[in-house]
Design brief:
The chain has 138 residues and is mostly helical. The protein has one domain. It contains 4 helices and 3 strands; from the N terminus they run H-H-H-H-E-E-E. Helix 2 crosses helix 3 and helix 3 packs antiparallel against helix 4. The protein is globular. 17% of the residues are buried.
């Protein structure tokens, strides 16, 4: 397998693989789709947990496919999950203040209340994610 100086698979090999896999599955995948999925996987792996990256990529694809499979459906699913990742990061940052509240397990930060992350989607909707879930608003 061809590799770059960092030991990573080359873009050519990735492009070939994506084209082969997409063809076998009867779907189209653009370079921007691949870039968006790799960005999502990186953010989940570093912001949530590493094994969550491939599972989340699968869930985004599944949700986009069920919604119709258009580029807009993919973007909407990506933006929804990225809002969740941002919410987790905000909650972790709020909890990293070092404050331990009454009733908290020793060594664990007290809850700072629900964290909310907002992402404006390409279709004009704003997706807000908090501890209770995700809601799209105009």
């Amino acid at each position: 397998m061809a590799a770059d100086g960092n030991g990573n698979a080359s873009v050519d090999v990735l492009d070939e693989w994506v084209a082969e896999a997409a063809g076998a599955l009867g779907v189209e995948a653009s370079r921007s789709d691949v870039s968006d999925i790799l960005d999502l996987a990186s953010r989940v792996a570093h912001g949530v947990v590493r094994p969550g990256a491939p599972v989340t990529a699968f869930l985004v694809g599944l949700a986009a496919g069920r919604a119709g499979g258009s580029r807009g459906d993919v973007e909407a699913a990506l933006e929804t999950v990225l809002a969740l990742v941002e919410r987790r990061a905000a909650a972790a940052e709020a909890g990293a203040g070092g404050a331990e509240g009454a009733g908290a397990t020793p060594g664990e930060p007290a809850s700072a209340g629900p964290a909310v992350a907002s992402v404006e989607r390409s279709d004009g909707l704003t997706v807000e994610a908090d501890d209770a879930g995700t809601e799209a608003t105009a």
